[in-house]
Amino acid sequence: MKTCCVLIPYFNAGDSLLTSIASIDYNYCTPEVIVVDDGSKTIKAADILKKYNGPLKLILVELQDNKGIEHALNKGLELHGHAYKFIARLDCGDICKNNRLEKQIKFLEENPSYYLVGTWVDFINMEGNHLYTVQHPAEYRLIKKLMYINTTFTHPTVVFRSETLKSVGFYPTDAPAAEDYAYFFNIIKKHPASNIQESLIDCIIDPNGISTKKRKTQIRSRISVIVKNFNFNGYAIYGLIRSAMLLHTPRKFTVFLNMLLRPNQ
Fold first, then answer.
1. CA distance 104 to 49
2. Highest taxon of the source (predicted)?
């Protein structure tokens, strides 16, 4: 079994795909990169990957039609996920830094009961300027509580064991635009998880990204995930109220609040 792959969904993203691939560290292991083109029509991943001349092996999966990120991720996992011990996520335009994969894989190797590890994350704008830093919790019991309020993992930062596919399954397809939130809930109900207390990813806030263009769909999906996993505690109740309020809050305003309230690194 190979050590690690990096799973990247793609949809008309252009050269930002190459930027992300170029940032992947390969000193600790040599990961393979699985790119799933989710039915691109204008800028196909195959044309972009022809420009790549780096050291990493690239595997391209092409979907005939645009199915959505959850279906693209599941197709990549279905075809190739079981060939690796660890599966890392990354999105087009996001940048790995500070030996990201080495630190996360070492964590999972040294903590065999843990199935998922994320990191802190720096959010940047389209020009590459730092906006704010999200410091996700490390302690498993706190993660399980805070997940009701907001996701305690940023999707492109996570690395998880391929054994998760047998234990938990694939990304849920009944939570459109919030497949990661639903999947993380499923994982932490069965297995310990953590976050490395260091920013190892720059995540770009794209005005054309899912969290912006499909914001209300995403929040409605989050509400359904909370209800599905609901238990009567203050975290779950507050999480429902908070999500309902976010339905009427523009993304630009929440980004502005994060810039004011969250620490800079």
1. 26
2. Bacteria
pLDDT of 210: 62
Residue type, 55: P
pLDDT at 84: 98
Q: Which value, in Å, is the radius of gyration of the alpha carbons in the chain?
A: 17
What domains does the chain contain, in order, with CATH numbers? 2-261 (3.90.550.10)
Beta strands 116-124 and 84-89: pairing type?
A: unpaired
Residue 255 has pLDDT above 60, yes or no: no
- Report which of 2, 9, 196 is spatially closest to residue 99, judged by C-alpha positions: 196
d(CA 26, CA 101): 8
61, β-bridge pairs = 36
**Per-residue pLDDT band at 263 (split at 50, 70, 90):** low
Q: How far apart are CA 40 and CA 43, in angstroms?
A: 6
**Kind and range of the H or E run holding 60:** strand 58-62
Digit-coded pLDDT (tens) for 218-244: 999 999 999 999 988 999 999 999 998
- The answer, yes or no, to whether residue 98 has pLDDT greater than 80, is yes
Is residue 245 packed enough to be buried (19+ CB in 10 Å), middle (13-18) or exposed (0-12)?
A: exposed
Taking Cα atoms as reference points, which of 97, 163, 88, 153 lies closest to residue 124?
97
176 vs 219: CA distance, rounded Å: 10
